Amino acid sequence: DDEANAYPPELNADYEVTKKTLGVGSFAVVKECIHRETKKAYALKIIMKKVIADILTKVHHPHIVSLHALYETADAVYIVTDLASGGELFKQLLDRGNYSERDAANLIQQLLEGLVYLHDQDIVHRDIKPENLLFATKEPDAKLMITDFGLSKILKHHDDILTTACGTPGYVAPEVLLQKGHGKAVDLWSVGVIMFVLLSGYTPFYGEDQAALFESIMSGKYEFDEEYWCDISDSAKSMIDALLTFDPEKRITAKEALQHPWITNDEKPSADAT
Ligand code: ADP
Ligand code: MG
């Protein structure tokens, strides 16, 4: 039939793809297939690259690095995107140590605006961290842009919990580690970790090794150590608590977070945290 004809001949030669669909993800369909030689059943994950590219080329927002073109050879995929020449927030964070509440609120607001846009289109980033937030230019007031979502993740099988976690796992939501969910709320958790880091200069969850770090995140427990947090507003702490809410159902959404007094400046944050 038509569908079988669409499979690559090399695949058809080794496996018979059955009509049974095991599951459907955001950009992938998983079918059952039978290894012709051994008659053993396997799962076949089909990633709809064309669909992903179609979606991502339509993503246009001031705080998101857009995809412009996509090419591929047998060995590589070539992705043309907006150029963000100001470098990573990660780098700036290392240089600055920490940020005043006003500067941090400005960055978090831009990040949230990008996320509202993505989430409205049912796109979950899943890897929000300071390495994936880039400044558009080298100017001091350059806008912040979200990069590295969707396509690159899927192409590199970042879907896999362990691969996601083995990079910089400190920003991963507990439900991802507990394999209990990967909805939009995972991005808000990461915003919470970033906000914590921007204001204090250290991460809320930590461990001697990766296993200990995972334990720390999965416990969901963190503290505002007086030594570093005594000068930071209650408003900022309440926003972090709303973002680092363990239950993803109860966690604040991107839209709600934009309305938080710490962002709207209804409660004046102290001018400088440093
Ligand atoms: P990976 O999926 O391997 O993390 P990224 O898309 O995050 O790849 O790119 C790796 C790094 O390359 C980024 O952290 C950033 O420093 C740089 N980079 C990525 N995209 C851009 C861009 N559009 N403009 C400027 N630098 C970029
Ligand atoms: Mg990256």
TrEMBL record:
Domain of life: Eukaryota
This protein's UniProt keywords: ATP-binding, Kinase, Nucleotide-binding, Serine/threonine-protein kinase, Transferase
Keyword flag Metal-binding: no
Domain Protein kinase: 16-263
Binding site for ATP: 49
GO MF annotation, one: ATP binding
Record-stated family: Belongs to the protein kinase superfamily.
Protein name: Protein kinase domain-containing protein
Record lineage: Eukaryota, Fungi, Fungi incertae sedis, Mucoromycota, Mucoromycotina
Part of the whole protein covered: 21 to 294 of 358
